[in-house]
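for the record, two folds in this file. i put them one after another cuz i was lazy. first one right below, seq on top, structure tokens after. the second one comes after a little note so u can tell where it starts
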Amino acid sequence: MTSYEAVLNQINGVPAGTIGDDRAITWLTDAKVVGIARNSRGHLELFLAGHELKPRTGTVKTAMRYHSWHRDSLAPLDANRICLPALGHFDQVGAFIATELLREKADVNLERAFAVTEPLIELAISRLEVSENAILGLVGELLLLDALCRRAADPQVAPIVQAWDGWRRSARDFTWEGTGVEIKTTTRATSSHAIHGVHQIEPTPASDDDTGETRLLLVSIGLCHADPNAPAVSIPSLVESILERLNAAGASGLVDEFLKRVSVYGAESGIGYEHATMVNEAPFTTTFRVTFFRGYDMKDSAVEVLRRDDVVAHQHVDAQSVTFRVDLPATISLGNPIVGARRVVEAILSQHG
């Protein structure tokens, strides 16, 4: 019986594929049924050799692909592949799944072992997706906050850091002098984002106890995993940059509060980054490259999304409970979106938009 520790050691030693779809599969037992590999983007993959498996759950179905894999000097390999996210601590989850499959005798009867293990696989993948989204979200919010701090005059730096509300459950990620900012981060090639409630894409209206927002910018940030030795950002590097700016601006009194807020971000999703102790820990050491940085003016009538009026017309629907996905094009109208971190930050800091 192969132990979890043995499988994890094997996974830790698996190199990323060199280019494209090239990868080397490491089989965990002599039966060559359960194997592990890493693609060129660093994603861990589990290979289950044999007939096509039929997942019962949508989550596992989405993560799994059946294919005939070409091998040099060998017959093609028919196998099911489960692709996991690339962030560091997910290797442990991959080892857990592989160990469970082997414990259920996948070498003897893969179909049965998979059927018994699928609920655990679904739970693990769902958890990974939540954690990965939290990490990507934090990178996006820190990217914008860092850019704002760098562009701002010294007296503005402390109020800017205090204006960041994305670290907790709040109506808006960031608000500055009547401008609301909603930050969305994605690894997709386009500005495709999940929206949780129409308040995320409409300015807050004025009320008796709230001046409301004169405009709302949806800041869409595209990220991809950075190549080794290429210019990149990470959660530790962004936090450190903001700390340096706070100190240089004479706002060192805010350092502890800022670090506390960073540690709260994503804690309910199982991450929670403690800068003093986790600088060198996976998955926070994961480096990213920014692929696009766009600020969409959501008051623009050319932005065709679901609006509050569309929802409240249905009196039995809670407008804040509606979730949907927006796919925003790279160009909507003249000047919308604002393109590039520098121009987005200037638009936020400008009182007149």
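(here's the note) second protein begins now
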Amino acid sequence: MTRLDTDFQDENAVPYFLWDDPMTVRELRERLRTASEPERVRLVGIILREARDTDVWAWVSLDEVLRLWPQLQRHLGRRRAFWEFLH
């Protein structure tokens, strides 16, 4: 069983919000850096949907959320209304 963590400084920790797609902090940072646009949108959508709003900004910038907004909306599920104020 994977241990989920809130320590984003530990490169080997699995962020708590990746409960359904576990990867380490290191792996997530690498994927965010190198992923294709559709995969990056999917990952940012997971972060916005599953992470605490204060933790989101450790992974993504407001500018990026605004730029990706049209593609992100379908990935936000129950959290969409919460994030709509950004747009």
